């Protein structure tokens, strides 16, 4: 199916964009644009925001004005600046969390799938137990164990990221393990064994490259989950302190009491930022997932009579 | 919140060909192994939380630190046994669990079983309410999206479903509060009932803890009306989160069934599309949804923590955040143990249903 094409057209997003059509293409493009804006805002935060993320003013709970575009919070923070700077915190946490969990999850998945036996069984039971439990609750316990309740910028980001990592590892582990087990039976692995390649080499070269093809999809979906978990942690007061970085979830926590007295601007803007970011990432991940799924299903049905025909239909759908 | 990912291995349970040939005798064995797996799951979670909580320091310093001298603190810690080797404490804890003795909370001296019963019913009430909202929105609109596949209605509903998922419960709660309690004044801002209802509920003998049920049983209609009003916003906030997922599930499954041979056969005989949807495709499409619904329990419980904090709904999630801040080991472990049991048992039931429906599941 994938014969020789240029490197560019095989890049994850570009490849899917070419395959897409109609509604799906619209959703994919919307996702790309929203995610692009999110990353751009994070990169340009120092230029875009009029004030620093932790700068405080004497006017508290001031409604939107020309000095404070989106008003100020009860703590005297500028809502507009904090919403902008929040993108940076979110990007940092996503990058650290997802990179860590991919790294650990892929290694464990390869080992577990390739070696098998008791190691495999123990890891699977462990991963399933963690996977089944509510993400946020585990992250709460983790974050309080790591940060012990107080945190500055970097330790806050790392404790949030590691808390998220722990609950994400099982997802990568499961996918990579399943793929590894499937690939282990493939002829090219067998021939590598026959040639005398070491287990490490087989895992690192032959299986790794083939097993990690689905990762970009999980990555985008996980990024949106990471943002929701970070915001949830911040909302419950287990995230990053407001005096060290701007974080949307924490701001929304304080906005709850403001909302009860009709002060809407402290909550609506950071909340909208979360929704738009997660929406963008989910649209991107979902459409990529949808576009890749037919191929996955097509491969499984290839052995049957009219596999080729069904495959075509699915791609068209 | 692991719900939006369709892992390649998690194929929806579909048709079951050659059921008898493959199933022969292996079902019992599968169920037995699957049942046995409940225990390691619970043990792992309880163990993780036990050691994680010990990393945070001890509850006595967290509660009394600063108010007592370090010598007095050390005495207190010694009396409570928190200075013993951690593995001694761990095995003592396991022994307690095995005998069903969970101890008492440190911060407010409640028996763990009472604490779980009181707050657990509040969480149960919230979960059931939100599930009703989620099903009432998810099933009809999911069917509509499947029926109008790739038309603009489908596009709108699908984007809405993702938007529901993308909105954190506490932000949805904030918007609902702003619009419906502050600006329109229809519903109260927070809590499970106003003061007079809470007093009436506390005076009941042998209450179930589920307020609307208790209010109905005692014939207190003002309290019932009050409880109902308080229930709406939390149920909608949490319900919308799951509604998006149900909508997508129903849509995918109905589309899958609508392209089945027997539906095709009906279509070729001139059965109307509407009738095909409501009479032929509807039920088979819902069976896999029941199993996936069970898997949403983790999402629901995680969302419940946020919803309860948003609306000051005094349930397990609200208390968990509170006890974590107070470093109340015993209470946190009790809550986590209960949640682990709920999650493990639900997953077991889901797997059993899936195995009964689809023999290919039994590996």
Automatic annotation (TrEMBL), chain A:
Its placement in the membrane is given as: Multi-pass membrane protein
Highest taxon above the source species: Bacteria
Please give the CDD domains that the UniProt record associates with this protein.
TM_PBP2
Record-linked InterPro entries: BP-dependent_transpt_permease, MetI-like, MetI-like_sf
* Coiled coil regions, renumbered to chain: none
Region Disordered: start-end pairs: 294-317
The keyword Protein biosynthesis belongs to this UniProt entry's keyword annotation: no
**Start and end residues of each ABC transmembrane type-1 domain:** 87-285
Q: Which residues cross the membrane?
A: 27-48, 90-111, 123-147, 153-173, 215-240, 263-285
The UniProt keyword set, sorted, is: Cell membrane, Membrane, Transmembrane, Transmembrane helix, Transport
Where do Basic residues bias regions lie?
297-311
Which cellular compartments is it found in?
Answer: Cell membrane
Gene3D superfamilies, alphabetically? MetI-like
Give a yes or no for keyword Transport in this entry.
Answer: yes
Q: Where is it predominantly found? A: membrane
Looking up PROSITE patterns in the UniProt record yields: ABC_TM1
Family assignment from sequence similarity:
Belongs to the binding-protein-dependent transport system permease family.
What is the protein named? ABC transporter permease
TrEMBL record, chain B:
Alphabetized UniProt keyword annotations? Cell membrane, Membrane, Transmembrane, Transmembrane helix, Transport
Source superkingdom: Bacteria
Which compartments is it annotated to reside in?
Answer: Cell membrane
The transmembrane residues are 31-53, 126-147, 159-186, 231-250, 285-306, 330-357
Membrane topology per record: Multi-pass membrane protein
Query: InterPro entries recorded for this chain?
Result: BPD_transp_1_N (IPR045621), MetI-like (IPR000515), MetI-like_sf (IPR035906)
Pfam families reported for this sequence: BPD_transp_1, BPD_transp_1_N
The record ties this protein, via CDD domains, to: TM_PBP2
Q: Which residues form the ABC transmembrane type-1 domain?
A: 120-354
**PANTHER family xref list:** DIPEPTIDE TRANSPORT SYSTEM PERMEASE PROTEIN DPPB-RELATED
Family, as annotated: Belongs to the binding-protein-dependent transport system permease family.
- Protein name per Swiss-Prot or TrEMBL: ABC transporter permease
Q: Which organism is it from?
A: Arthrobacter silviterrae
Q: What is the lineage of its organism?
A: Bacteria, Bacillati, Actinomycetota, Actinomycetes, Micrococcales
């Amino acid at each position: 199916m994938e014969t020789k094409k240029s490197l560019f057209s095989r890049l994850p997003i570009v490849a899917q964009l070419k395959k897409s059509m109609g509604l799906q293409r619209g959703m994919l493009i919307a996702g790309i644009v929203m995610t692009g804006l999110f990353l751009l805002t994070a990169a340009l935060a120092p230029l875009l925001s009029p004030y620093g993320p932790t700068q405080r003013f004497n006017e508290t709970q001031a409604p939107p004005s020309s000095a404070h575009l989106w008003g100020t919070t009860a703590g005297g923070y500028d809502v507009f600046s904090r919403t902008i700077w929040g993108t940076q915190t979110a990007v940092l946490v996503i990058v650290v969390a997802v990179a860590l969990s991919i790294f650990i999850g892929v290694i464990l998945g390869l080992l577990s799938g390739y070696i098998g036996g008791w190691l495999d069984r123990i890891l699977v039971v462990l991963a399933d137990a963690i996977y089944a439990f509510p993400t946020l609750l585990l992250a709460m316990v983790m974050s309080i164990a790591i940060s012990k309740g107080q945190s500055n910028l970097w330790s806050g980001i790392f404790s949030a990221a590691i808390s998220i990592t722990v609950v994400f590892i099982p997802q990568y582990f499961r996918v990579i393990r399943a793929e590894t087990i499937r690939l282990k039976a493939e002829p090219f692995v067998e021939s590598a064994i026959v040639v005398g390649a070491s287990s490490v080499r087989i895992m690192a070269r032959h299986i790794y490259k083939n097993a990690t093809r689905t990762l970009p999809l999980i990555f985008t979906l996980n990024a949106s989950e990471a943002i929701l978990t970070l915001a949830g942690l911040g909302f419950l007061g287990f995230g990053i302190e407001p005096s060290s970085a701007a974080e949307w979830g924490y701001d929304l926590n304080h906005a709850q009491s403001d909302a009860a007295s009709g002060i809407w601007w402290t909550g609506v803007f950071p909340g909208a930022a979360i929704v738009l970011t997660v929406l963008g990432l989910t649209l991107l991940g979902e459409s990529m997932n949808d576009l890749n799924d037919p191929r996955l299903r097509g491969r499984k049905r290839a052995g049957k009579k009219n596999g080729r025909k069904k495959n075509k239909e699915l791609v068209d759908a | 919140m692991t719900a939006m990912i369709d892992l390649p291995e998690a194929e929806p349970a579909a048709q079951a060909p050659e059921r008898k040939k493959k199933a022969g005798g292996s079902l019992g064995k599968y169920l037995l192994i699957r049942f046995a797996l409940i225990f390691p799951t619970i043990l792992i979670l309880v163990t993780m939380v036990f050691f994680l909580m010990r990393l945070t320091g001890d509850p006595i310093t967290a509660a009394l630190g600063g108010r007592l001298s370090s010598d007095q603190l050390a005495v207190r810690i010694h009396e409570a046994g928190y200075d013993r080797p951690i593995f001694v404490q761990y095995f003592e804890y396991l022994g307690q669990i095995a005998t069903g003795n969970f101890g008492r909370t440190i911060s407010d001296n409640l028996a763990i079983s009472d604490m779980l019963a009181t707050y657990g019913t509040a969480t149960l009430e919230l979960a059931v309410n939100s599930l009703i909202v989620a099903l009432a929105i998810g099933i009809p609109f999911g069917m509509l999206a499947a029926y109008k596949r790739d038309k603009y209605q489908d596009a709108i509903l699908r984007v809405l479903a993702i938007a529901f998922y993308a909105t954190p419960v506490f932000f949805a709660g904030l918007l609902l509060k702003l619009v419906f309690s502050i600006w329109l004044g229809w519903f109260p801002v927070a809590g499970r009932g106003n003061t007079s209802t809470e007093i009436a509920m506390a005076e009941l003998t042998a209450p179930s803890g589920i307020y609307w049920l208790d209010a109905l049983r005692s014939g207190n209609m003002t309290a019932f009306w009050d409880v109902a009003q308080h229930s709406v916003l939390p149920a909608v906030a949490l319900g919308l989160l799951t509604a998006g997922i149900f909508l997508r599930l129903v849509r995918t499954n109905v589309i899958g069934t609508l392209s089945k041979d027997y539906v095709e056969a009906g279509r070729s005989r001139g059965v109307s599309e509407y009738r095909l949807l409501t009479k032929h495709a509807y039920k088979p499409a819902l069976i896999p949804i029941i199993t996936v619904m069970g898997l949403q329990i983790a999402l629901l419980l995680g969302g419940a923590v946020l919803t309860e904090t948003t609306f000051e709904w005094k349930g397990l999630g609200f208390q968990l955040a509170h006890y974590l801040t107070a470093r109340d080991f015993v209470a946190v472990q009790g809550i986590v143990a209960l949640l682990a049991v709920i999650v493990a048992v639900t997953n077991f039931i889901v797997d059993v249903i899936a195995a009964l429906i689809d023999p290919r599941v039994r590996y």
